[in-house]
Write a sequence for this structure.
């Protein structure tokens, strides 16, 4: 019962390098989200997707790109990493129940990214 | 846009005591959900309790209960008989309930670090 799986769990980058975080969920959820968590800031939404092939910007989208080519996967890309992107990144998913959106998000374990 | 405010950055209580965490929010929406999530040192985000705005009855889950005051836009969490395992960051969160099933995720407060002392 994997739930939401994030890869990698830890990564160190140099300024200007690129990388992709992979999020995979096996619950057939329609919606997927990428958040970043910084000390004293809570979690802030970067991008989200309401279905395969769709993406939308959240609160802090600058410097990130996303893709949802398959329903179960949601990729977060950093094209040119900056020290300000040092953070813990969380992927989450949610589903529509019989009575509509349930509201509950299922989170991955987080990925700690350090940009030097 | 919605905002969620948690005014207590850190709280500390003795084991077995009751503690209340505060949360206020600002929205023009009428249909929404409110949540409390717990984040222990393991970093995993765990749903503690959920409240639907149209329900007047306060949600309860074992030792956890909320005091939902819609008019005041207040959503506090009460933890009874606190345990050492309750030590964690607690986040209050808001989600609007849009028509057609769409949703743009949760808006989180900045969190309250709760420490349960033995």
């Amino acid at each position: 019962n994997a739930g939401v799986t994030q890869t990698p769990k830890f990564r160190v980058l140099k300024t200007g390098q690129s990388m992709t975080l992979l999020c995979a969920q096996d619950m057939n959820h329609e919606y997927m989200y990428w958040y970043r968590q910084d000390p004293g800031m809570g979690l802030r939404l970067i991008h989200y997707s309401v279905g395969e092939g769709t993406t939308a910007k959240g609160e802090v989208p600058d410097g990130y790109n996303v893709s949802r080519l398959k329903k179960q996967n949601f990729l977060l890309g950093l094209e040119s990493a900056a020290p300000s992107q040092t953070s813990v990144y969380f992927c989450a998913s949610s589903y529509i129940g019989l009575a509509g959106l349930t509201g509950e998000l299922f989170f991955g374990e987080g990925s700690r990214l350090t940009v030097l | 846009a919605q905002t969620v405010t948690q005014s207590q950055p850190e709280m500390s209580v003795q084991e077995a005591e009751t503690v209340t965490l505060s949360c206020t929010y600002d929205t023009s929406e009428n249909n929404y959900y409110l949540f409390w999530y717990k984040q222990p040192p393991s970093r995993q985000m765990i749903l503690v309790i959920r409240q639907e705005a149209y329900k007047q009855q306060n949600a309860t889950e074992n030792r956890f209960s909320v005091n939902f005051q819609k008019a005041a836009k207040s959503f506090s969490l009460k933890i009874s008989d606190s345990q050492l395992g309750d030590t964690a960051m607690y986040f209050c969160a808001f989600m609007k309930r849009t028509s057609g099933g769409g949703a743009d995720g949760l808006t989180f407060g900045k969190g309250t670090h709760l420490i349960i002392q033995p």
